[in-house]
Structure to design on (92 residues):
């Protein structure tokens, strides 16, 4: 009997700004009882399901707090800083 549980697959990506991503971020904001981030956002997904988002410009986060651990939110903040630093260095 296999007692090992498989870790969910984490993906962090730039939200494309399409209707599907906008709806996912709005749903996360509703769950979190917060306003959605303004402008572009990074979206964290566990096994393809959106669980957290962070505003690229302002760092405002919204999340499904039942599924998004504090370590996932920390990683999301770090990825935002990393992405902003790369954009600054390379002028994107």
């Amino acid at each position: 009997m296999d007692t090992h549980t498989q870790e969910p697959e984490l993906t962090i990506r730039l939200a494309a700004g399409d209707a599907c991503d906008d709806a996912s971020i709005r749903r996360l904001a509703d769950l979190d009882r917060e306003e959605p981030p303004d402008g572009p956002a990074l979206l964290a997904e566990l096994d393809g399901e959106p669980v957290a988002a962070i505003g690229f410009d302002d760092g405002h986060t919204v999340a499904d707090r039942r599924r998004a651990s504090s370590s996932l939110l920390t990683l999301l903040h770090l990825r935002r800083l990393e992405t902003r630093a790369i954009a600054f260095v390379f002028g994107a």
Q: What stands out?
A: The mean pLDDT is 93. The helical segments are 19-32, 70-90. Residues 8 and 47 are 6 Å apart (CA to CA).
